[in-house]
Amino acid sequence: MMGKGILMKRNRSIAWFFTVLWLMTSCQTAPSMPEETAETEAVQPDTPQVTETASPETIPASGSRIIVDGKTRTHPLTDEEKAAYPQTTNLPALYIDLGEKKPSAIQHGVYTDARYSLVYNGEGIIGMPLQIKGRANYSWSFPQKPYTLKLEEAAPLLGMNTGKKWVLITTWSDKTLLRNYITLNLASELVGMEYSVQTRYVDVYLNGKYNGLYVLSQKIGLGDRQVDADALFEIEAQYRHADCSNCIIPPSGTHIMFVEPISDAADEEERERLMRTYRQLIVKADTAIMSRGIEDYSRFIDVDSFVDWYIVNELVKNYDSGFTTSCYMYAKDGKLHMGPCWDYDTCMGNQMGAADCLYPEGFHVAESGFSPWYRTLTKEEGFVQALHARWTELYESGKIAAFRQYMEDLPEFLSESRVLDQKKWPQKLKMSDLRGWMSRFTYDEELDYLKDWVDTRIRWLNAQWNENAEETDAADPAGEFWPAIPMEPVWTPEAVPAEIAAPSLNESQPTP
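Request: output the structure for the sequence above.
Response:
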């Protein structure tokens, strides 16, 4: 049985989450609630003093790669700037000014010039140029739309890695506001997958009007502050797009799109060279996966990353992760690695159209018709042994329990912003298109549905994967092996370790 002592073993990344959560909430005054339709006239500030961020810093506790580097025009806000760009909740506020254009002028896939101001805890970046465009496919049809941002000057926004391209992920289709954020943090901070994207919650204003709660994230791409690899691919079902000029389809039928650096090829000769090089690697990996054992396919794939990616995506039972779309893979040092993880708004029982993903029991990624690699790997002895050992490690070290704990801590942390978001988008809680008769129509009911789904899912997977399942009574669906939730947090304001310093105001919301 998994004892309370094991649950209390948290790594430093979990400690950081509770520490920062306390620091952020205790230092905030009660927010002023702006009128939803109030226009805010931007005050042009004097040129701020450029603030140099910390030198490159690695936080390896969870295995994730977090580097803060570069310069950002963050400065203490003047009273005029605070009035023009108020932080109305305990979360950072991102203002995007389109000038004379209305938000409806933002087009899908076409950049529009704008300026942004990002404020948090009395500091901010004010009036810097960027370009904004609509992004994604189905979610572009939502009233609360997703966007891609391209800064004129690269910056480490809110303590994340320096970058020019950023993504605003809408929370429209997830009534709990949690699924994308907690799953991306499961991958980065708990499982510790290399090159995982970093995320922050932000309140977004377009032309001074509140537009809802978003998740701000780096855009996935090659780079020494993003995916520091040789090539980037996206595995996606072929029916989802017409242009397959950069596709690599090995004998198994796995459909792989070459994303970078093929898009930057100087000429056709270079493009053909890149295609030939990586087609050879992918076909070798494909052949080994489909017909040989771990001794062979481990020469061409990084088995650890394939295991970790599978655990994350099977745990949350994400429909897209059945190699339907948004399944990223990169090549580095002659091997294929799975990741970074991406796109989780309809996971954890939030999509009735994907019947096998709606219910917490059963496998999805391992049985999807689009993922012959995982259908084969999850029946191969060497991979199964690695999978069971890794799940047992994550479960018994408290990482899976820590993932469940996010659902206890974050709703209170988001409560101020949630009020504004529900005021802006009251129809969000009324929707039933994703889950039909299984929909809930209050926030608390939706949150309970998510918790119950995840509790059942963890119990079921633990019975399949835990090497010590018999010892934990995992074979009994009603057993007591899964810990009571909520758990008492190890890290409290009264017991913050001295070696964990308060974060810089420029480094808000370190990931849990």
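The CA atoms of residues 178 and 407 lie 8 Å apart.
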